Amino acid sequence: MNNNYIANRSKGKMKSDILKIGAMAKADKALGNHVIDATIGVFLNDDKSINTVPAVIDNLNNNVTKNVGYAPITGYPAFKEGLLKWYLKDQYEKRINEYYIPFGATLGGTGALSIAFNIFLDPNQVVLLPSIMWGNYKLIAKKAGLKYDTYQLFNSEGNFNITNLCTKIEEYSGSQSNILIVLNDPCQNPTGYSLSDEEHVRLIKKLNKLSEKVNITVIYDIAYLDYDGNNKQVHKIFNNLFNNEVKFLPVFAASCSKVFGMYGFRVGAIFTFIKDEELASNITAAIESQIRGTYSSPNGPALNCLGNALLGEDIDKLSNEIYNNTITLKERTTYFINKLNETNIKHLPYKSGFFVCLPCSDSYDICEKLKEQHTYLIPIADDIVRIAVCSLNISEIDELVMVLKEVM
To answer: Is residue 183 domain-resident?
Structure first.
């Protein structure tokens, strides 16, 4: 008899664990060293406190203990209404009358992705992930019993590689009746790339054509959506889908961590817009089954508080606070990109969001050398380093660029 108690499907370690590297940075700082920590995707103020939304925090302070019972399996109706109104703005009434909207409150965006991976593919099928990605996609796929393949994120011109994605779809359409694609857009983690309107509409048309041969589901990971453009308007990603006849299934994995500053409360959602009543009913049942069989019900107090905030009289104040946060982040990342350009340090195509990526010869070696100078970044591939600009202030950006110039 051996002493291996762990099932094969649960074995394995991540080559680059963001949380572990972040913990190393904190431990280094605890020793009294001056540390630059650009590891964790958390938006920090210049004084290094977590950037929050006061209108949301006020609601948590006043209401979080008033409703501590189990939430419904898919969350409170007020949370669904509030979140959809936040995304759809003045189109809310029109869209809820046009579409069935299967919806489930989840444990963060990760929970939404996990549910989607489990309900739209069978075990051993392949999910298509971007070649440069948030590494947790791979782990989520593994836990769902899936395999994965990657489509090239960029073409030779530095734009979204629609051609390669379509080639991958055609490749797997012969062996799978369902194709699942993850599109982390806008503000892609880790590159900060966002599709242009022209790119997205062209992609929709290509996917519509391919949907004549195979069922295609696209998971739009919109965790950073409000940091792209003006959050007071309906984002172009929704308008492009509503204004073009979509023949594939668009599914949204939403996170309330980044925008509403509710990182530790683990609040998110999975939802879609469809006109087929039977399909909507089946998706809702599948979402409920996944939630019930994993974590039973979502975080009720947090859902209740955020629902109150999004439907409350202070929604304009909340919207302004988030808008000001997006401006602060934009100024910070613009400053960093300009500094990189001045120093001739190459970066991958960036448009908006928390992160910037640097191509290099050996990311793991570079990150180890940076640790010697009490600087912590994330190697997200053998040849790519990720920098969480969201967590740096201007003086740290100046220091980081100097260290990068020396090491790279």
So the answer is: yes
Any domain includes 26: yes
Euclidean distance between CA atoms 385 and 408, whole angstroms: 11
b or e along 18-51 (b: 16 or more beta carbons within 10 Å of the residue's beta carbon)? beebbebbeebeeeeeebbbbbbbbbbeeeeeeb
- How far apart CA 77 and CA 378 sit, in angstroms, is 39
Structural domain contains residue 6: no
Q: What's the rounded Cα separation, in Å, for the pair 125 and 122?
A: 6
151-193 pLDDT, tens digit per residue, is 999 999 999 999 999 999 999 999 999 999 999 999 999 999 9
Main-chain phi, psi angles of 380, to 5 degrees? -95, -5
CATH of the domain at 339: 3.90.1150.10
Among 292, 312, 332, the domain-final residue is: 312
What is the 3-state secondary structure of 173-214? HCCCCEEEEEECCCCCCCCCCCCCHHHHHHHHHHHHHHCCCC
Q: Provide the number of structural domains found in the chain.
A: 2
- pTM, two decimals, is 0.94
Q: Both 163 and 292 in a single domain?
A: yes
Cα→Cα distances 350→63, 161, 335, Å:
39, 15, 13
Domain match, 176 and 100 both: yes
pLDDT digits (tens, 9 = 90+) for 41-84: 899 999 999 999 999 999 888 888 888 889 999 999 999 999 99
Query: Residue 207: what residue type?
Result: L
Among left, alpha and beta (phi > 0; psi -120 to 50; other), residue 348 is beta
Measure the CA–CA gap between 239 and 168, rounded to whole angstroms: 26
In the chain, the largest separation of any two C-alpha atoms, in whole Å, equals 65
Q: Which two tokens stand for residue 67?
A: 């409703």
What's the burial of 83, exposed, middle or buried (CB within 10 Å: 0-12/13-18/19+)?
buried
By residue range, what is the domain housing residue 383?
13-41+317-407
**End-to-end CA separation in angstroms for the chain:** 50
